[in-house]
């Protein structure tokens, strides 16, 4: 049986304040093409599964781990029996982990860690299992430990250089690591201050570069300009605020860092291919249909 998932519409990634959701999936149902706004990590505990994404077919063996990046269309084909650990993490949770926004932007659409064959595998699996144990425990203060384990998982992925081939080559070249650290620092600064009246000079100073040098380096390593990244963060915040049907679009714009409603409307449409009002309307319709849950 194939379970339907609304194509081109993201499913809710986190139902609760934890900012993540974990499943011990033992169902034989497959999932039609869908995508998530956040990060998805799947580990095949017993038997494998087949993941179709990016025009290719990935046959997962028992014990394999795959990281599916945000916004990637994919299908899941499950075997008649088996078990998978499926972790979905909200972007808002991930961006609060210091330095991790850089790793997220450099990740490939799909990152596969075959069971026991790559250096990072053992550490990633160990931390993923600890995270699952802590998640299931329901203990107080587990949020802090979940964040720590998630940080370690992404750090191991980052250290392992599981980026696109071009970015991995850049990372390995002599002297490039200092540039990457500077860009990471700049991203963290933007994530803390994006709702303020940020200037290019402010962010460049935080990285220790002149604004001209910073502009070139940021574009080289992030594959987008500083302004594109800043707008992405602001629009991401706006998406969260638009879930509140009582908040006016103007208030959403002001609380997301935009200086005017017209700028907000134009930027949102550029990033999301629809207006904020249409986005809110579509989300409301999906909530009524039960395709996504109300936040």
From TrEMBL:
Residues 184-282 form the HTH araC/xylS-type domain. GO terms for molecular function: DNA-binding transcription factor activity; sequence-specific DNA binding. SUPFAM superfamilies: Homeodomain-like (SSF46689), Regulatory protein AraC (SSF51215). Keywords: DNA-binding, Transcription, Transcription regulation. Transmembrane segments: none annotated. PANTHER family: ARAC-FAMILY TRANSCRIPTIONAL REGULATOR (PTHR43280), HTH-TYPE TRANSCRIPTIONAL REGULATOR EXSA (PTHR43280:SF2). InterPro entries: Homeodomain-like_sf (IPR009057), HTH-like (IPR037923), HTH_AraC (IPR018060), HTH_AraC-typ_CS (IPR018062), RmlC-like_jellyroll (IPR014710), Tscrpt_reg_AraC-type_HTH (IPR020449). Pfam families: HTH_18 (PF12833). This is AraC family transcriptional regulator.
């Amino acid at each position: 049986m194939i379970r339907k998932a609304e194509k081109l519409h993201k499913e809710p990634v986190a139902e609760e304040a934890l900012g993540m959701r974990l499943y011990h999936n033992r169902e034989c149902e497959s999932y039609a093409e869908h995508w998530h706004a956040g990060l998805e990590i799947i580990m095949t505990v017993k038997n494998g599964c087949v993941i179709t994404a990016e025009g290719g077919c990935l046959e997962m063996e028992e014990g394999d781990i795959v990281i599916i990046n945000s916004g990637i269309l994919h299908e899941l084909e499950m075997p008649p029996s088996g078990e998978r650990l499926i972790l979905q993490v909200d972007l808002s949770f991930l961006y609060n982990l210091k330095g991790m926004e850089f790793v997220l932007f450099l990740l490939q659409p799909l990152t596969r860690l075959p069971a026991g064959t790559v250096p990072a595998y053992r550490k990633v699996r160990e931390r993923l299992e600890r995270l699952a144990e802590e998640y299931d425990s329901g203990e107080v203060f587990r949020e802090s430990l979940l964040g720590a384990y998630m940080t370690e998982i992404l750090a191991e992925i980052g250290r392992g250089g599981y980026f696109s081939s071009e970015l991995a080559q850049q990372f390995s070249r002599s002297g490039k690591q200092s540039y990457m650290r500077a860009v990471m620092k700049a991203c963290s600064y933007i994530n803390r201050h994006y709702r303020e009246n940020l200037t290019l000079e402010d962010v460049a100073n935080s990285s220790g570069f002149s604004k001209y040098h910073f502009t070139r380096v940021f574009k080289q390593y992030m594959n987008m300009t500083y302004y594109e990244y800043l707008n992405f963060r602001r629009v991401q915040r706006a998406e969260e605020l638009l879930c509140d049907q009582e908040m006016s679009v103007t208030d959403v714009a002001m609380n997301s860092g935009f200086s005017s409603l017209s700028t907000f409307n134009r930027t949102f449409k550029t990033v999301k291919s629809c207006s904020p009002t249409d986005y809110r309307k579509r989300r409301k319709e999906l909530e009524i249909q039960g395709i996504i849950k109300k936040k």
